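*** Query protein ***
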Amino acid sequence: MTAFEQAFVVVVGHEGGFCSERADPGNWTGGAVGCGELHGTKFGISAAAYPAEDIVNLTLEAAAAIYRRDYWDRVSGDRLSLPLALLVFDAAVNNGVVRAAGWLQGAVGVTVDGRLGPETLAAVDAAVRARSSAAICAEFQAQRLMFMTGLPTWRIFGLGWARRLSLLPYQSVAMSAEA
């Protein structure tokens, strides 16, 4: 399996199947509870991000194509080490590409602008050599955790998110061992 295919299996496993929880702003086409129509989320593809998508009938193959185009490729997944690629990819799907890129930039000490260009990728390489991939992964996860605990929906979904954030590093190590 390619790195993307491995990461997709992990992330879609966290995202799960169809959900139309009314309290989740992502399930609404307007991106806020009660705003627009309640179309739900499936495989992590939300009505808020994809209001024109037929969420209920979305196939796993169509979701994989969206994940690759809109998340994996935009965070340079093929360019990052497998453990870091999984963490950044998962954050991009769950929290947005710009935030994920910004957390990676913060983890390696470059200007945070939410875009992963050559300067950021060179800084990632240098930081991994100087500090280790594990240190960069831990800093990335810490920044993500701080953001997520501040979300107003943390009280509703926080335990599930905490489990996800806690499990991801172990999953990234397991993926690396299989590669």
The chain has a mean pLDDT of 93.
